[in-house]
From TrEMBL:
Domain of life, source organism: Bacteria
Organism: Sporolactobacillus nakayamae
SUPFAM superfamilies documented for this protein: P-loop containing nucleoside triphosphate hydrolases
Name recorded for this polypeptide: Energy-coupling factor transport system ATP-binding protein
UniProt cross-references to InterPro entries, sorted A to Z: AAA+_ATPase, ABC_transporter-like_ATP-bd, ABC_transporter-like_CS, ABC_transpr_CbiO/EcfA_su, ECF_ABC_transporter_ATP-bd, P-loop_NTPase
Record PANTHER family: ENERGY-COUPLING FACTOR TRANSPORTER ATP-BINDING PROTEIN ECFA2, HEAVY METAL TRANSPORTER
Keywords: ATP-binding, Cell membrane, Membrane, Nucleotide-binding, Translocase, Transport
Protein topology in the membrane: Peripheral membrane protein
Record bears the keyword NADP: no
Domain ABC transporter: 5-245
MF-aspect GO terms: ATP binding; ATP hydrolysis activity; ATPase-coupled transmembrane transporter activity; cobalt ion transmembrane transporter activity
Keyword ATP-binding: yes
A single Gene Ontology CC term: ATP-binding cassette (ABC) transporter complex
Length: 288
């Protein structure tokens, strides 16, 4: 698997602000990964993903040093059309993305903009509507849908463009638990079945940690940690100090470690955590 995103010594400061929002960021992301991005408020998460989408520096004013490369090409040299083919972006507020009066038109919009033919557009609409379970809503106004349905429309319109990378910035923050589940499930399928690279900024750590191949911790504009979940959660105290809310299974295993009852690796899987707890109980019973 090759690197598809490379960030080298990236520092970015929005104009008229006192300090850089990102400071000397270095990051490599490989193909077909699910990357979870977490960190406290105002730490630089949205800024980081905006740099990967090329919104920074193309659409913002500020000072930019270092470089971001997508598929080996400097993002500064990529045109809007190429960027749209490489990277799709889903916002927290799906309505911010809507431009049409029906779901079907909404899904077609981006494809019409890049000049796809009507047969290709029809085929892709049917394909994304199936994946995101929107088949019965195509003639509805996107504004009349539930929060979860709206977010599925936003994701479907990004999927229809078939980008290699999909970035989602707090996509579930406005959704109820069912809406959250459906967004997480669709994103998992996008990675597994469509081989996309998913980068998700998210505060719901439990679900994010379970799906992610790697987690990034952004703190004060820097990448403080970039690791597989098992290693990411090794020092729980430090994460809590930095404003994170680790998943319940991690907090539980950390307590077992402190009590001298467990020495193995951390896991975010509920099933594995139960097995660990059961084996500790069995050990204790056999000693008594
Ligand atoms: N358009 C902008 N103009 C000026 N400063 C900005 C702009 N957007 C973000 N910032 C500043 O950059 C820093 C990082 O903000 P950013 O939105 O990237 O953080 P975040 O981790 O995504 O926050 P949150 O979790 O609250 O959404 C903050 O200090 C913020 O005030």
């Amino acid at each position: 698997m090759g690197k598809i995103i490379e960030i080298n010594h990236l520092t970015w400061q929005y104009t008229d602000t006192e300090k850089p929002a990102l400071v000397d960021v270095n990051l490599d992301i490989e193909d077909n990964m699910f990357i979870g991005v977490c960190g406290p408020n105002e730490s630089g998460k949205t800024t980081l993903v905006s740099c990967i989408k090329g919104l920074i520096p193309h659409n913002f004013i500020g000072s930019y040093t270092g470089e971001v490369r997508l598929f080996g090409k400097n993002i500064r040299d990529l045109r809007a059309k190429e960027l749209a083919e490489y990277v799709g972006f889903v916002f927290a507020d799906p309505e911010a993305q809507f431009t049409s009066m029906s779901v079907e038109e909404e899904l077609a919009f981006g494809m019409e903009n890049i000049g796809l033919g009507s047969d290709e557009i029809r085929e892709r609409i049917d394909w994304v509507a199936k994946i995101t379970n929107l088949e019965n809503l195509l003639d509805k106004s996107p504004y009349d849908l539930s929060g979860g349905q709206k977010q599925r429309v936003a994701i479907a319109s990004v999927l229809a463009m078939q980008p290699k990378i999909v970035i989602l910035d707090e996509p579930t923050s406005m959704l109820d638990p069912m809406g959250k589940d459906s967004v997480f499930n669709i994103c998992a399928r996008m990675k597994e079945e469509l081989n996309m690279t998913i980068i998700m900024v998210e505060h719901t750590m439990d679900r994010l940690a379970r799906l992610s191949d790697r987690l990034i911790l952004v703190h004060n504009g820097k990448i403080e940690r970039y690791a597989e979940p098992e290693h990411f959660f090794e020092n729980v105290d430090e994460l809590v100090e930095m404003g994170l809310n680790p998943p319940a299974s991690i907090v539980f295993l950390d307590q077992l470690k402190r009590a001298g009852l467990y020495e193995g690796p951390m896991t975010t899987s509920v099933e594995e955590t139960i097995e660990i707890a059961q084996s500790i109980c069995a050990r204790k019973e056999s000693v008594q």
